[in-house]
Amino acid sequence: MKKTLIYILCIAMLAACAPAASTPTNTIASTPPPAATSTSMPEALWISPAVPSDLIDLAQTWKIPQTDDPAFATHKLDIADSGTLWIYALVAPFPTLVDDATSQDLISTWKGVPAGPLRGRGLLMAESTLEAFTALWGEPASGVVTTVSPDALAGLAWSVSAWAIIPFEDIQPKWKVLTVDGQSPIRKNFDAGTYPLKINFGLSNPELIALPESNRDESKLATVVLTGVTALVRATAATMEMKSVTYPGTLIGDWLREADVTHISNEVPFDKACPTPKGGYTNLILCSDPKYLELLLDVGADIIELTGDHFADRGVNAMLDTLEIYKENNLPYYGGGANADEARQPVLMEVNGNKIAFMGCNGKLKYAKATDTVPGAADCDYDFFVEQIKEVKAQGYMVIFTFQHEECYFAGPCYTHVEGFHKVADAGAVIVSGSQAHYPHIMEFRGDSFIHYGLGNLFFDQMTYILLDGTVIDETRREFMDRHVFYDGRYLGAELLTAMLEDYSRPRPMTEAERTEFLSEYFYLSGWIPLSPTPIPQPTVTLTPIALP
Question: pTM of the prediction?
Fold first, then answer.
């Protein structure tokens, strides 16, 4: 029995040591491991360093968190084949003689072989602009590009006479915008299709947010051309009688017609009893045949300045008749009127969304002005106009203030010009322009204002002039027409159109050599560029003209 017990114990022990029998898996009731889940990446926007600041500012409004690492981005804003079209401009300091360059000049210079007007010049640009054009043209050659904060670009360019590439939205009055391959983004005939300084930026998922079509909207651009003295009298009128009323505008008419607003300072009244015109400078009682209005309409006149000295030459009835002629032809006028109150009223315009105001006055002492009951030119009551400028500016208007003022036959400014011109500029006029000058005058920037003390003649017969000492000058043939550009409620700056009077009546565009000489002289006299080691002497005394026969 003892042996049997031992045997049973051994059997039990062996059973305990044996491996457990396997059980089919489909009979096991066990808890499976946790299932894997996909966690979506949080939204994040990566913005390429090539993106311009205005587009970055727009991206800030999307309220999407930003990341510096494109690997963590769910959305990317970068250079693309399509998307928003960003227009850039080739710019130089305003007193630059060169007007244009070619894309080949730019690309060659970029690659380290300076060409055309870019020889001896570097290019300034913001870091983002460099990134953008590096993607377009490849890495620039060493020393070609200097990156500068956008706020410091214009100041540095002026100090070292450098050029720059900037986004369209950074254009401001102290820049001169050069054409590239004949195209300029501040002109009405701009063709983006043939323009080389452009880059597309797009979102990696464009359905997320609609980007603007471009940083340049043609519908927001407005141009105003200001002109100098028009007096359709004497030799000018005699030539019109012989060659046609519209003859004086045949060579520069396109400049005027292209503008959204063309300004004409017509100094004399229309009078149906005006005598038959004759050449010569002896007649100082001036009038024009009403049929000569056809010339002003033909060149696209949109607004008439009446600050001129000779508006009252034919008496009250001629002035009132002239005002009626303008009204009948939907030509608003300012700087003169049926009485002093009307003469001082501004003309307010909204042009492609740009609010523009015109004001003007006659600052001379010896000419009669409009009164409470008598028509004429507006007197320069500076206290009144300073307040009016401030009021109109507060309403969102950009003020253009034009003067009929003292005359001198040198580059000026003349006598009391500076005080008056500065007063209206300091009050907030963005453009201050002299309409009185028969001899063109210099320019200056004052704060945010562009001042041109005198543009010279437009349609007037002064081919030559004799000074008191017997010197005969022909600088009265040289003319400025200033094309002013506005965009989206901002003043972008001026383009200086230059012409030479011919045939006692008809301005023609200057040749390249004439223009270079003219601008060189005036940029020097304006204190902007060196012209010669010896300053050109300027008269400081009153010069009395002698009439030519």
Answer: 0.89
